[in-house]
Predict the structure.
Amino acid sequence: MDRTVYTADHEDFRDTCATFLAKKVAPHIEQYIEDKALPRDFWLAAGELGLLGLEIPEEFGGAGAEDFRFNAVWAEELSKVSAALASCVGIHSDITAPYIVELGTQEQKERWLPKIASGECLLAIGMTEPGGGSDLAALKTTAVRDGDEWVINGSKTFITNGYSADLVVTAVRTSPEKGAKGITLFAIGAGDEGFSRGRKLDKVGQTESDTAELFFENVRVGDDRIIGELDRGFIHMMQKLPQERLSCAISNIAHAKQILVETIQYAKDRKAFGQAIGNFQWNKFLIAELVTKIEVAEAYLDNAVAAHAEKKFSAVDAAKAKWYTSDVQNQVLDHCVQIHGGYGFMNEYRVARAWRDARVTRIWAGSNEIMKELIGRDLGL
């Protein structure tokens, strides 16, 4: 069935994205994997085309699209090339930048947004802490008032773009006695004294995504670094998490769909016992199931994207989309590996990398168990 959520303008934009990725990115993926990071040249090239500032107003150098469907198209095309690409760009553009766009002061917007849109200022978001996991309200990084400054101490882990970020929107505890109501967001710069990074973490998948631990040792910043309102950081994060989870869901299905397309071609080309392996009834029936699962999930996601574009997408909707798409993604890719046989276990084959890259999607942005908890609570359970 035709997808109806996107217009001709969105499809023209898709062509722009696909062309950019085919020419400027796909030929260099092996180098990205070896370096365990995306080079600054990638960010600057994407910024020059206006691909990093879709949610940033034109007055600050962005595209000012004001239509999340463009973000979704960009995420889909990134995911076809590499799940890690979509992760890194999503953290920068769809997840972190909106905090500054929607909560930042005029001075903050003028200071940071033009370089965020151009790729000169790379963003990360510091939520997860060692021992904290999905429990954002339990974070231990603190900011203590000292005259006109705040002194920040603590650490974050599993931070995407963490090794190369220029600016990190960081959740810290400013009023310990208030629990979740005592958290504030600060923008911490890579050049701030007392800020440091650990090594690039050695992950099972998404190797080309630089992921690191961040450390804050008596980092001193002023009130001009507060993003949003004092002690309302947890609320700000809860308001932004639906878009983060939707971005993840979009990437999940686009990623799995592309590898399934390639697997179908493999099943047509690979011969065994005198015929294409796709002709064996088991494989034929299995592929039929996988295609249907992807298309059903994609249809749900298209509705979710349309709802979000109209500001009608809830946190519970996001939880459903996030857990379900990651589950479908992992199921599909596991079967794709099996269809490839021994070759599916070789890193030189995209299906093997995709399988490894996908496993984390059941964990990040709130584990799938947390997503089901949110859905269950909404049902009064």
Summary: The chain has a mean pLDDT of 96.
